[in-house]
Design goal:
With about 210 residues, this protein is α+β, with helices and mostly antiparallel strands. The protein has 2 domains: about 80 residues, Glutaredoxin (3-Layer(aba) Sandwich), CATH 3.40.30; about 120 residues, Glutathione S-transferase Yfyf (Class Pi), Chain A, domain 2. Helices cover about 60% and strands about 5% of the residues. It contains 9 helices and 4 strands, in the order E-H-E-H-E-E-H-H-H-H-H-H-H. The protein has a 4-stranded mixed beta sheet with strand order 2-1-3-4, covered by helices on one side. A hairpin with a 2-residue loop joins strand 3 and strand 4. Helix 1 crosses helix 6, helix 4 runs antiparallel to helix 5 and helix 5 runs parallel beside helix 7. The longest helix has about 35 residues. The protein starts with a strand and ends in a 5-residue tail after the last helix. The chain binds glutathione. The site of glutathione (GSH) has 12 residues, from helix 1 and helix 3. Glutathione binds next to helix 1 and helix 3.
């Protein structure tokens, strides 16, 4: 049964879906849709995703967008280790973290901090200090929420890796490429430790985008 994931390797949400596929040991094809070249607005992509975002999953005639839906579907349909805790409360926490990252974390840590502190200077521009400060304020709250969960030597929602970890990895790695992001992580030591541990995991290494 063919699995095609539409999206660019540098997209955080696409990487989360790829992390799920890698953790499951599934074969899949990545069909690059370069959003920086406007390809998400092309009619072919809008037919797959009316909001013009990535990723989109195609699995044996079934098409699905929204990363949390994709991640849960892949976890449930594919063999391999379960990526959603069996315990109801741990699973609720996992869903909460994915929602926090989708609603607040991505926009602040990637859309504002990574964009202003890494991409804007790379393109020869000057970061907008107000946007950066706003992103860092929200990012700090997100990190505070995660900090309590990352204590110990396990994963965010227990002793096994879950979708919450796979949502956080791509966002946190971009955030940590910036100086203010690293400073914020320096004052959230449990999350810093979690990032260090998970950073060498095979799925994380295999999906790490090559930037620049
Ligand atoms: N809620 C969506 C968010 C997807 C999303 O924002 N993807 C970004 C790339 S990481 C995107 O497609 N951006 C293109 C745009 O906003 O035009 C999901 O869970 O899939």
């Amino acid at each position: 049964m063919a699995i095609i994931l539409h999206g660019p390797a540098y997209s955080t949400y696409t990487r989360t879906a790829r992390l799920v596929l890698e953790e499951k040991g599934a074969a899949y094809a990545l069909a690059e849709v370069d959003l920086l070249k406007g390809e998400t607005q092309a009619p072919a992509h809008l037919a797959r995703h009316p909001f013009g975002k990535v990723p989109v999953l195609e699995h044996d005639g079934f098409t699905l967008f929204e990363t949390f839906a994709i991640a849960r579907y892949l976890d449930e349909v594919l063999p391999g280790p379960r990526l959603q805790p069996g315990d109801t409360r741990r699973r609720a926490r996992m869903t909460q973290i994915c929602g926090v990252l989708d609603s607040y974390g991505y926009g602040a840590m990637v859309g504002k901090v990574f964009w202003q502190a890494a991409i804007v200077p790379m393109q020869g521009g000057t970061p907008d200090a107000a946007v950066l400060a706003d992103g860092l304020a929200v990012a700090g709250k997100v990190l505070d929420v995660l900090e309590g969960l990352a204590e110990g030597d396990g994963f965010l929602c227990g002793p096994e890796i879950s979708l919450a970890d796979l949502f956080l990895v791509p966002i946190l790695e971009y955030f940590a490429m910036t100086e203010p992001g690293r400073a914020a992580l320096g004052s959230h030591r449990a999350i810093g430790g979690w990032a260090g541990r998970i950073g060498s995991r095979a799925s994380v290494v295999a999906t790490r985008p090559k930037l620049g």
